[in-house]
Amino acid sequence: MMNKLANLIVKGRVIVVIVFLVLSIICGYLATKVKVNYDLTSYLPKDARSTIAIDEVMAEYTDNIPNLEIGIPCETITDALKFKKELQALEHVNSVLWLDDQVDIGIPLALSDQKFVDGFYKDGMALFQVTVDTSEDMPELEFLTNLYDLVGEDAAVRGQLVEHAHMQSATTSEVTSIATYAIPIAFAILLFTTTSWFEPVLFMVVIFSGVLLNMGTNLIFDDISFITQSIGAILQLAVSMDYGIFILHRFSEYRGEGYDIKEAMKMAIVKSVAPVLASALTTIFGFLALVFMRFGIGFDLGIVLAKGVFFSLLSSFLLLPALTTLTYKLIDKTTHRSFIPSFEKPSRWIIKFGIPILIVAAIVVVPSFLAQRSNRLLYGARTYPAKSRQERDCLLLEERFGNNVPMALLVPRGDWAHEGQLVDALTDMPEVKSAIGYVTAVGRGIPNEILPERLMSSLLSEHYSRIILIVDSPDEAPETFDTAEKIRATVDAAYPDGNTHLTGANMVLLDMRSTINKDILIVDGLAILAIALVIMFTFRSLMIPLILVLTIELSIWINLAIPYLTGIPLNFIGFLVISTVQLGATVDYAILMTQHYLDHRVELNRKDAATHTFATVAGSIIPPALILASVCYVLYFSSSLSVVSELGRVLGRGALTSLFMVLFLLPNLLRFFDPLIEKTTWKLKFLPDKHTYRRKSRDASARRHKEHFSLKKDPQEDFS
Fold first, then answer.
1. What are phi and psi of 507, to 5 degrees?
2. What whole-number distance in Å separates Cα of residue 291 and Cα of residue 287?
3. Which of 31, 205, 396, 682 has the fewest CB neighbours in a 10 Å radius?
């Protein structure tokens, strides 16, 4: 089967190139039509309480809770009321809440509850709670730009709308910026680690084709998250670069043994199928484990990244051989000496100190596992570039008014006495700055008939009375969750029948934490199981999957233990994704190392096999690991989106940690567990350990390879 496919690829190489060119152009255009979702709350499970609350608010009311805070310098109450009318007149502004909706401003402010007054008017600045309804014809970024023009530089603006606008701007601009840095770095690493100046060009063309196919086919989804849009293409480039490297290395080996171009490429394709397919499947299954998260961002990331690896696999096995056989003369003309140093001496030292390495690994297993399970996770995504207007405005409003979190509480309409008791209980909490609802307006003696229709429609619906709460709560801290739980408990106690709904940023974070904590165990377990099964069937072994998964898992635990030991909180996306991405992306290195060890053990004792394996494999796995690490660190240093930056840092560090473990720990584990590997692997027979290696002539080696890879043989025999 593979022999026939390899023959078709080489024979129809021109057709293959044309097909990929056309598809890449089409998908490149389609990629510009893919919609991007900037709202993480939309990925919460449908049965989460905050999700149900949001659905009820949207069904009963024409506007949501305030998503914008605007602080305006105002010398008098009259100035503030005038500006409030200007805001209300803006298109897409549904409601504007201020002090006059909470207290009777006809009474001197000194006689009013100072807690409420300071929440809206303090030190000559009025703070307005604004609800904006943006749409495709007026996206958040455009509305915010127009608002800045209206309020001027002296005003301060913050809120969910500002966060979404920043995500839109950063996702659009930073993807190009990240690619500008990441691609040259990856290209430079390839130049240094290949033996032809033209080979890196081939790799880049092949990977870009796979990336374009993946991005264009994202049009099959309603939308993709801004996280996926920001990291998808770069991660695809980084995790699948090694497929082409492995294939071209095999091609070069067979050419060096005297085979002609076409024959060498056919043999390279056939011989590379098993290790490359195993590597790709482990990465794909690692990504697909994310699909089983209840938090929907996992499905979004998992499907897109897995699909990307699939397209990279196709381009590596189809486009790369076709291009290589068409341009081999250019490869030959640009050949240069290898810049990769010999790993003979390091390999001897690593095997010589194998026992101490194993002891150190055994010592750090338990502490690193416990440390990484104790990380404090962050669930929000708000960060702004240093010295930007967004950061300045947030700091100014926080200094003057504290941390405000708007919340919407829906209670059954009509029982005003009961509702009033609940409002009193909530406003008695030190964290609740204000509560604006129907009972607070009527309580001031204002008849229902003369209340502004705009205000009444935002408070009362057919079934509910809505109370807008302004809560003093940090963006994300332990007290954020404590406050959310306290408010929810107070509401549940007042309405034990459960016919209430409570929503707001802190409630969403509370549900995100609950959902994600359950997802972590499921995702980790499925990723490990799926990858272990792929390895088991690839090597037809019971012991090898345990060794390989343990090697990469230990590197993951060490990687994730670092934030805990340094006291730095870790974004939940980084924690969730790293467990699957690092495992799926870097287990490839372990698979290649193991495959070579097994091959060498046929002719070498286990010490010599481990030494020779390190010496021959190090040069193949260091380049893709460095590419993955460097590209991820570009994400870390270049992105102003906290989620993207955090993921880049953790995955970049993880790539280096996995590389270190595969190079130093894995050869010694293979050597140490050599007898168990032989006993638990089907039809595997090692050279008795007392034997020594007798080097064969190059001609004999070539004859052996030619006989083994004869295209007339059943290809299944090649992988036995």
1. -70, -40
2. 8
3. 682
pLDDT tens-digit readout, 313-325 = 999 999 999 999 9
Q: What is the side-by-side order of every strand in the sheet holding 464-472? A: 432-436, 464-472, 404-412, 501-504
Segment 368-371 long-range contacts (CB within 8 Å, at least 24 positions apart): 368/554, 368/557, 368/558, 368/561, 369/557, 371/557, 371/560, 371/561, 371/564, 371/565
Residue-wise pLDDT tens digits, 206-247: 999 999 999 999 999 999 988 888 888 888 887 888 788 888
Q: Which run of H or E residues covers position 266?
A: helix 261-288
Q: How far is CA 44 from the centre of its chain?
A: 16
Across the range 494-512, mean pLDDT stands at 86
Nearest to 507 by CA among 51, 21, 27: 51
At a CB cut-off of 8 Å and minimum separation 6, what does 11 contact? none
Q: Count of alpha carbons within 13 Å of 95, Cβ hemisphere only?
A: 22
Cα separations (Å) of 696 from 347, 455, 606, 692?
22, 90, 19, 13
Mean pLDDT across the stretch 592-612?
A: 89
Task: Name the nearest CA neighbour of 202 among 74, 327, 382.
Answer: 327
Long-range CB contacts (< 8 A, 24+ apart) of 177-180?
Answer: 177/638, 178/230, 178/234, 178/634, 178/635, 178/638, 178/639, 179/233, 179/234
List all residues 6 or more positions away from 23 whose beta carbon is below 8 Å from its beta carbon: 209, 213
Average pLDDT, the chain: 84
Q: Where are the domains of the chain?
A: 45-162+389-515, 349-374+540-689
Residue among 206, 201, 183, 190 nearest 331 (CA): 201
Phi-psi category of residue 18: left, alpha or beta, with phi > 0 → left and psi -120 to 50 → alpha = alpha
Angle at 532 between CA 526 and CA 536, to 5 degrees: 145
Q: Which fold has domain 349-374+540-689?
A: Multidrug efflux transporter AcrB transmembrane fold (1.20.1640)
Contacts of 54 (CB under 8 A, 6+ apart): 41, 64, 503
Determine how many CB atoms are found less than 10 A away from the CB of residue 506: 29
Mean pLDDT of 441-459: 58
Cα 201 to chain centroid distance, Å, stands at 28
Longest Cα pair distance anywhere in the chain, in angstroms?
103
Cβ contacts of residue 565 below 8 Å, gap of 6+?
371
Query: Is it the case that residue 719 has pLDDT exceeding 50?
Result: no
> CA-CA distances (angstroms) from residue 491 to 57, 425, 445, 470, 502?
17, 9, 25, 15, 9
Tell me which amino acid residue 111 is.
Answer: L
Reported pTM: 0.80
Structure tokens at 399: 């200094």
C-alpha torsion angle, residues 602, 316, 18, 194 (rounded to 10): -90
- Nearest-angstrom CA–CA distance, 213 and 635: 22
Structure tokens at 528: 């490990």
Cα separation, 579 vs 586, in Å, equals 11
Using only C-alpha atoms, the chain has a radius of gyration, in whole angstroms, of 31
Residue 202 tokens, joined: 């081939």
Give the torsion sign (CA, 655, 253, 609, 351).
Answer: negative
Please state, in angstroms and rounded to a whole number, the distance separating the CA atoms of residues 108 and 266: 89
Residue type, 608: D
Instruction: Please name the residues in contact with 142: beta carbons below 8 A apart, sequence gap of 6 or more.
Output: none
Distance CA 623, CA 659 (A): 10
- Cα 264 vs. chain centroid, distance in angstroms? 39
Q: Which amino acid is at 2?
A: M
**What's the sign of the alpha-carbon dihedral 522, 525, 530, 533?**
negative
Q: What is the amino acid identity at position 227? A: I
- Is 100 in a helix, a strand, or coil? helix
How far apart are alpha carbons 259 and 252 in whole angstroms? 10
* Predicted confidence band of residue 75 (pLDDT cuts 50, 70, 90): confident
